[in-house]
Write a structure and sequence with these properties.
Order of helices and strands: HHHHEEHEH
Number of strands: 3
Oligomer: single chain
Distance between the termini: 37 Å
Strand order of the largest sheet: 2-1-3
Strand content: 5-15%
Largest sheet: 3 strands, antiparallel
Radius of gyration: 23 Å
Length: 175
């Protein structure tokens, strides 16, 4: 249901995603437009300048673009766009069935149910026989899955860096 401003509860529930879906294509268009200038801080003769000219500015824009593209597509690995995102930047997806991506989830039945807790417990670490005895549980199911947590952390770190650049240079997004 839309409110008087045309905003839905869904838009607000994931506001960061809603905004990213809008900002990402705008940054792409800005990056690919025939801009007439760049922020003075990238001029070689600026007193506090970083230098590098238009090339340095466009590298900053590319990092901003990556950040918003990451927000929009990183979890959509089962979609064409999601796979394209990961392959474009990393030549693989975090969910590829590579041996290095293999993980296990161990599911235990808790013989003694604690108040308001489930009889089930899951862990990414297999408990020893001694730990199971101590917790009064038994392994019931092991699930194998593929996920490259390191690749995801690497992308997340880069996205965060790009978001910081977006904040830093927000007022420089002009032509």
């Amino acid at each position: 249901m839309f409110d008087k401003d045309g905003i839905t509860k869904h838009d607000l529930w994931g506001l960061y995603y809603t905004l990213a879906k809008y900002i990402y294509p705008m940054l792409l268009r800005f990056r690919n437009s025939n801009r007439h200038s760049y922020p003075g801080i990238f001029s070689d003769d600026h007193p506090h300048g970083k230098g590098g000219g238009i090339e340095a500015w466009e590298k900053i824009l590319d990092e901003m673009i990556f950040s918003f593209e990451f927000i929009v597509y990183h979890e959509l690995v089962e979609t064409k766009k999601g796979k394209e995102f990961w392959l474009k930047y990393y030549n693989e997806t975090p969910w590829d069935n590579f041996e290095k991506n293999k993980n296990f989830s161990y599911h235990y039945y808790m013989k003694t149910k604690r108040e308001s807790l489930s009889h089930w417990m899951s862990s990414g670490k297999k408990l020893s026989e001694e730990e199971c005895k101590e917790r009064n549980c038994e392994l019931r199911h092991t699930e194998e899955y593929y996920r490259n947590w390191e690749l995801e952390k690497l992308a997340e770190k880069r996205a965060q860096k790009g978001l910081m650049l977006f904040a830093k240079y927000f007022r420089n997004l002009w032509d």
